[in-house]
Amino acid sequence: MKETSSLLKTKIAPMKVLRQIKCSGCGEIVNEVEGTVALGPEAGKLFRAFKGCRCEEKRLAEESRKVQSAMLERKTKAIFNQNSLVNRSLQRATFENYEPTNKQLLDAKETVEEFVKEFKSSNPENLLLAGSYGTGKSHLSYAAVRALLDKGYSGLFLSVPKLLTKIKDTYNSHSEFSEAELLEAVEKVDLLVLDDIGTEYTNAKSKNDNWTQTKLFEVMDSRAGKHTIFTTNLSSDDLSKKVNERNFSRMMDGTTVLKMTGNDYRRKSF
User: What is the pTM of this model?
Assistant: First the structure.
């Protein structure tokens, strides 16, 4: 349903409303009006038009959103070369080739798959995959990113130690990107995975005020209202001590915890 744009440029007499209908395209209540052209070569001509339809406005807004999304994706790819930040074996990780070795791991897989299935930018949800080494926390998280990329969303899988190294690299005068550009890319993606949180270096001499913990807070705070997946090998007490209470509180806000314990499937051949 469209308004006739040429009518907006033509002198017209007062119009009367014939009926009101709901546009199937934009969902707005639209008036079907009738009037006569007052001036010009078509003076006196009867016309009907729809007033209040926003289909064209919404189409243009959607096109603008897609352009901005594509620009962000190109910028993000330029800043983060995923192949250099993700282990080669992990690059093949999918939900299909994940093999849970117990019911707890099967439940975790099904929960992450459901997370992807129900994923909506307007309904942010966080996951924390916590448990022993080799149970597939990184595998499932990377699989989630891949699946959402296939659905047209943007996503990043970043090892926390490597992310912090990447931030430090921006302090080099020859860096191609600034810290602000890097943090903006991390903030804007639809899904961010922060893998191996708790394994990053922290200054043991300063429990509550060091560069690492400050940067972690900046990243996590910027993700408010966005989906984030965390993975860790630490217990809740150890993680709280490692990242500090403020970061841990921010991290757990709106976060569902998935416990993943079991044998290291990467060593099962032994």
Answer: 0.70
